[in-house]
Write a structure and sequence with these properties.
The complex is a heterodimer of chains A (about 280) and B (about 475). With about 280 residues, chain A is of the alpha/beta class. Chain A has helices at about 60-70, 90-95, 110-120, 120-125, 140, 170-180, 195-210, 245-250, 260-270, 275-280, and strands at about 5-10, 15-25, 30-40, 45, 50-55, 80-85, 100-105, 130-135, 150-155, 180-190, 215-220, 230-235. Helices cover about 30% and strands about 30% of the residues of chain A. The chains are: A alpha/beta (about 280), B alpha+beta (about 475). Chains A and B meet through helix 6 of A and helix 12 of B.
């Protein structure tokens, strides 16, 4: 029996997706986890009734989350992903032979299990032998670490549920401490379009600015997210996202991507005026 | 045994709501309909039980029905002979205790590190304070509990005193040897009054310091709204078997409103029911939160987290494990600075900070993720702000030089002086640094150079000085 999955993007806007089957539905200690089979978007993972990823457009999100930093930092050996039980960020990182260790900190073990069972497209990331999973609070995990990683990817849900901690100043500050002197932090940075996400976006940006000397925001188009216009944060201790981009080095790796390329990389940092205003950089 | 699953005030209000009684009585907002803005803000459910005392809802000043039943349930739950719902905060409970126990000119033995409300109660009743030097820890920079020997000696020196007053515990969670104090006080015909503004949970949790009533104290003022979960401003006044509760009620009625809020009363009723039924589990959870935070914060380095290691059998006879008191001396920051950084930069509000300590209040309302945020922020504060240590703040207890009773001095003819010019004069007002709200001067005491110096350094450290008419505390009123 087909039915419509509806996500409220605001009090007045809803996205409806025709769904053929509900594959999974459980309440974990932290959140409600559902996985649906849809006609248009393939499998869809939702947490507390909010879409986290769909099979159809997750490549955009995960490629932009990983490859931008990897094309800038010349020597990522130790990478950490915080959040993101779906495994998509791990999958993209695992495409780099030069990375020695890929760690994931995820709070919710039930989410990891659900994804491994029902979302093979992204959960394939778990199969790489370099991947090590820690089931723990992200802030708790990171606060004891100093200069341990070259790259930290904060792949959080919205800052309104269990993901809230991953948008705090103390979290960003502890990430700074856990990065090596030339480390980069990339984060899911919400959307500028609807006020709900836009406020979270502004707050996150302000806090990142306070913690990192180099900070920039870049964008991508992710159709299943509210408004489709989504932002990512690039925060770094040393490297600049454009000045230190090395297209030749990255292209030589021969990594085949569907969304990311090094020209798009540069364009992604050129933001609309209203977004620049929100970021206080107009 | 009464049925602690009952909450008579709450039940009567629910019944009233269901009956859709037509109100032709006060309050004039009539279940919120007459004040839409306020109802939008507080919610209809809340406004619909903001009602007045009636024949059916009983009266706080003269309880014969549901309030009487609720107070009897509370008395049983706290192991008291009688209990009063209080709607004027624990300040009102403190006044009730003191005014019921000591008359004008009679002596009350008390530690110096009492809350302002105790000194104010003395101003109202005219009693004579006999202060005991609370032991101090120079390393922690705080006043502790009373040494038993000091209490016994003071009792012997003042056989005419009517009562002994005890903080159970202090703001920082430190307890005196209450049971022994009760034994000695009772042996000399004195009553024991407990300030349990920070001790409501002692009555319900396991593995916590002894509560006033369990220790045999005669009266206790219990802030149910702190660890007990009721609404701000609600409190319990508890009495033991040798107290004339009907007289206490008359005393309470001297200053208590005759329009007591049913929001406050029902919050006491419901919270008592919750703690009587689930208190053990609730405070076990709170202790787990606190123990976890204590261990994690200790691991950061430079934060000295208070624990039962402090217990010394006397001035720190017991320690309340639910309190997360942290000394910041090794960090080179004042507790108040950590308090301000947490607020300004990390959106975290803690209970207080003083010159060398801060207190993060842990309760059943906490969430693991918020405790993680606090710990994570403290890591960051150490990384970003750690400084060289200042020399330990040298504050030695100065025995107050009582010239007049607080009441005589407070109501005397006075003149206004620059604080720095007032050395040698008799103060007519209270003066304390806040936090933590302990009097440096009470009305009737001689002002010394030491006190003026301490006030100056507290100000420089960012503490707020309160109690004086001059809000900036540049001036002080002294006896003319």
């Amino acid at each position: 029996m087909a039915f419509w999955f509806a996500e409220n993007h605001t009090d007045n806007v809803t996205l409806n997706i025709l769904v053929d089957e509900q594959l999974y539905s459980q309440k974990s200690e932290y959140q409600k986890i559902d996985i649906f089979q849809s006609r248009e978007f393939g499998r869809i993972l939702t947490l507390d009734d909010v879409i986290v990823i769909t099979e159809k457009d997750e490549f955009i999100y995960h490629e932009m989350l990983v490859h931008v930093a990897m094309a800038v930092h010349p020597g990522v050996k130790h990478a950490l992903v915080v959040g993101a039980g779906d495994g998509g960020a791990l999958r993209e990182l695992a495409r780099y032979d030069s990375i020695e260790s890929i760690e994931l900190v995820e709070l919710d073990s039930m989410l990891v299990e659900a994804c491994r069972e029902f979302l093979p497209t992204t959960a394939i990331g778990y199969d790489d032998p370099r991947v090590k999973v820690h089931i723990q609070d992200g802030l708790k995990f990171i606060r004891r670490l100093e200069e341990a990683y070259d790259l930290i990817i904060v792949d959080s849900t919205d800052p309104f549920g269990p993901g809230e901690v991953l948008f705090t100043k103390e979290f960003y500050g502890n990430c700074y401490k856990a990065l090596k002197p030339d480390g980069i932090m990339i984060n899911q940075h919400e959307s500028p379009f609807y006020s709900y996400e836009a406020n979270a976006m502004k707050r996150a940006h302000r806090r990142i600015k306070e913690s990192f000397p180099v900070h920039a925001v870049y964008q991508a188009h992710i159709p299943s997210f509210p408004s489709g216009h989504w932002l990512f944060g690039f925060a770094s201790k040393l490297y600049h996202p454009l000045e230190d981009l090395d297209p030749v080095r990255w292209q030589a790796l021969g990594i085949k991507t569907r969304y990311y390329n090094t020209l798009l990389h540069q364009g992604a940092f050129y933001l609309p005026n209203y977004v620049k205003e929100m970021l206080g950089e107009s | 045994m009464l049925d602690q699953s009952r909450a008579p005030v709450y039940e009567a209000l629910e019944e009233m709501r269901a009956e859709k009684l037509v109100p032709f009585d006060v309050p004039g907002h009539k279940r919120g309909r007459g004040n839409k803005d306020l109802t939008d803000f507080l919610g209809e459910r809340c406004m619909s039980v903001d009602v007045n005392s009636t024949k059916y809802l009983d009266s706080l000043g003269h309880p014969t029905g549901i309030i009487k039943e609720g107070e009897e349930l509370a008395a049983e739950a706290f192991g008291a002979s009688s209990a009063f719902f209080m709607v004027g905060g624990t300040t009102a409970s403190i006044q009730g205790m003191i005014l019921s126990t000591v008359r004008k000119g009679e002596k009350l033995i008390l530690p110096r590190n009492v809350h302002q409300s105790i000194v104010n109660a003395l101003i109202i009743c005219g009693a004579v304070p006999i202060y005991i030097n609370p032991q101090t820890s120079r390393r922690l920079g705080i006043a502790l509990g009373m040494a038993l020997e000091d209490v016994v000696r003071t009792i012997q020196e003042n056989p005419d005193a009517k009562a002994v007053f005890v903080n159970n515990p202090t703001y920082y969670g430190i307890c005196s040897n209450l049971k022994e104090i009760v034994v000695h006080a009772h042996a000399h015909g004195m009553q024991v009054l407990c300030d349990e503004a920070h001790g409501a949970h002692f009555y319900f949790g396991e593995g916590l310091p002894v509560s006033g009533m369990a220790a045999g104290a005669d009266m206790a003022a219990v802030s149910m709204h702190k660890s007990g979960g009721s609404l701000t401003q609600s409190s319990f006044l508890l009495c033991g078997p040798d107290v004339n509760a009907d007289y206490v009620r008359q005393i309470i009625n001297l200053t208590q409103t005759t329009s007591a809020s049913y929001l406050l009363i029902s919050s006491l009723d419901i919270s008592r029911r919750t703690l009587a039924q689930n208190g053990v589990k609730i405070f076990e959870k709170v202790q787990q939160f606190a123990a976890y935070a204590r261990e994690e914060i200790s691991d950061i380095g430079d934060y000295l987290v208070y624990s039962d290691d402090l217990i010394n059998g006397d001035s720190i006879f017991d320690y309340d494990q639910t309190k997360l008191s942290v000394n910041t001396y090794d960090l080179g920051l004042a507790g108040i600075e950590v308090h301000d950084i947490l607020h300004d930069e990390y959106d975290i509000q803690i209970e207080f900070g003083d010159l060398s300590n801060f207190l993060a209040y842990i309760s059943i309302g906490d969430k693991t993720k918020n405790i993680e945020r606090l710990i994570g922020s403290l890591y960051e504060i150490r990384r970003r702000y750690k400084k060289a240590k200042n020399p330990l703040f040298a504050y030695d207890y100065v025995h107050p030089k009582l010239v007049l009773t607080p009441q005589e001095a407070f109501f005397a003819v006075k003149k206004r002086l620059q604080l720095s010019q007032a050395v040698g004069e008799v103060s007519s007002e209270s003066l304390m640094t806040y936090p933590p709200g302990i009097p440096l001067l009470a009305p009737g005491e001689r002002i010394t150079q030491e006190i003026v110096d301490f006030i100056q350094s507290s100000k420089e450290a960012g503490c707020v000085i309160t109690g004086t008419q001059d809000i900036t505390a540049e001036h002080i009123n002294v006896l003319a």
